[in-house]
């Protein structure tokens, strides 16, 4: 295990303003996530799970504390710098695939690579490689509407891994699939993450899936604690 975590949350706080006043969600959350480590985040709805993922993924800024990615404190970064860092170092997988419906499977995996400056031939080669690894060789030219739910999520995972991120964040990545497909896609996701040495934080309500990860954490009173 490397000494420097791929992700470090240190004393992170986040509150939201409601009609009833300030609602504190995170009250000093701490978490270290290392290369090659897959951590399950299992917590009831409304405890701040999505907020934690958004902060870790640089989609939101904390009210206090630090979010460090590869040792870099991102707290004071301008939006453009945060966007650039996110595109190059962080991959996202959501419960719903969020593929661009007007583009093919291949194009959905090519576009995020070109967004960070990868030349199209190299981006297409990487997309073909990833899609084939998820059993989608021959389906690259299909738009999402012609793919099954499991195939769409495999494309979404390929897209998340396209830029070789050091950190992968996933929010119920197989929660929208039937049990059999969910188990198969999750196995493929774990294998891909382990083979790439990625640090991954995966939110799930499924205790069987959580048990297959390296450790399990939860949120309690705004803090990250072992489950």
UniProtKB/TrEMBL annotation:
<dbReference type="GO" id="GO:0089705">
    <property type="term" value="P:protein localization to outer membrane"/>
</dbReference>
<keyword id="KW-0067">ATP-binding</keyword>
<dbReference type="GO" id="GO:0005524">
    <property type="term" value="F:ATP binding"/>
</dbReference>
<dbReference type="GO" id="GO:0005886">
    <property type="term" value="C:plasma membrane"/>
</dbReference>
<dbReference type="InterPro" id="IPR017871">
    <property type="entry name" value="ABC_transporter-like_CS"/>
</dbReference>
<dbReference type="InterPro" id="IPR003439">
    <property type="entry name" value="ABC_transporter-like_ATP-bd"/>
</dbReference>
<keyword id="KW-0813">Transport</keyword>
<dbReference type="Pfam" id="PF00005">
    <property type="entry name" value="ABC_tran"/>
</dbReference>
<comment type="similarity">
    <text>Belongs to the ABC transporter superfamily.</text>
</comment>
<dbReference type="InterPro" id="IPR027417">
    <property type="entry name" value="P-loop_NTPase"/>
</dbReference>
<dbReference type="GO" id="GO:0022857">
    <property type="term" value="F:transmembrane transporter activity"/>
</dbReference>
<dbReference type="GO" id="GO:0044874">
    <property type="term" value="P:lipoprotein localization to outer membrane"/>
</dbReference>
<dbReference type="InterPro" id="IPR003593">
    <property type="entry name" value="AAA+_ATPase"/>
</dbReference>
<protein>
    <submittedName>
        <fullName>ABC transporter ATP-binding protein</fullName>
    </submittedName>
</protein>
<dbReference type="InterPro" id="IPR015854">
    <property type="entry name" value="ABC_transpr_LolD-like"/>
</dbReference>
<keyword id="KW-0547">Nucleotide-binding</keyword>
<dbReference type="GO" id="GO:0016887">
    <property type="term" value="F:ATP hydrolysis activity"/>
</dbReference>
<dbReference type="InterPro" id="IPR017911">
    <property type="entry name" value="MacB-like_ATP-bd"/>
</dbReference>
<feature type="domain" description="ABC transporter">
    <location>
        <begin position="7"/>
        <end position="227"/>
    </location>
</feature>
